[in-house]
């Protein structure tokens, strides 16, 4: 059981370090600088989230402020200098103490919820992170989420559509349009390219109307032997044609 708990603890540490790295990427992408020279409310929010996660890692691994300070000074030296390491150390120790108390009261021999501090969903809400921002910052594989997350089903559908396009297959909508053009061409007795040509020229409605007139006249002559006069055509498309009488063969 001790081995399982240690594995879970190490997995949680790796996860939280990945979250911290993802937040740093988001910050650099949004601000447009690796190390913002000015401390603003926005950059302070990012820093507070990363500091909480660092304190959580410290509570899980017994790593002190020195280890966290080295990480911050290598990546955000300007911000650290403005806030001062002493002030950050005090916040770090406060967060680590809270994390230790929380985990001491919840960890048992059978279940180990090592999670403390801002979860990915809470981070996304605080920063109002979108899926597009995650991808643009290269943080979409850091275990973070967004305020508009895509379901696994949506991601799989997009991935399969992308694979089909790369393989040269047309999208479902294009295949449907092709089938509709072919069916209409067969009904009017013309080639599908004729339908496409009129559609691109904006004359498809006039062409279909004219083609229907010719086809009705031809059918009437063929099946009635010119014994019935061609009925008047409707004045507009909303008016339906009257059903035509059929000629029964003599018994």
Give a nutshell description of this structure.
The protein has 251 residues and is mainly alpha-helical. 67% of the residues lie in helices and 0% in strands.
Draw up the topology in text.
Layout: H1 2-31, H2 41-61, H3 65-75, H4 77-83, H5 85-106, H6 120-127, H7 131-137, H8 152-166, H9 172-188, H10 192-201, H11 204-224
Helix pairs in contact: 1-2, 1-7, 2-5, 3-4, 9-10
**Percentage of residues in DSSP E strands:** under 5%
In terms of quaternary structure, the protein is: single chain
Number of strands: 0
- Report the radius of gyration as a whole number of Å: 35 Å
**Unreliable stretches, pLDDT < 50, 5 or more residues?**
219-242, 247-251
N-to-C series of helices and strands:
HHHHHHHHHHH
Q: Biggest sheet, in brief?
A: none
Tell me what you see in this structure:
- With 251 residues, this protein is an all-alpha fold.
- The chain contains eleven helices and no strands.
- Helix 2 crosses helix 5, helix 3 packs across helix 4 and helix 9 packs across helix 10.
- The C terminus is likely disordered.
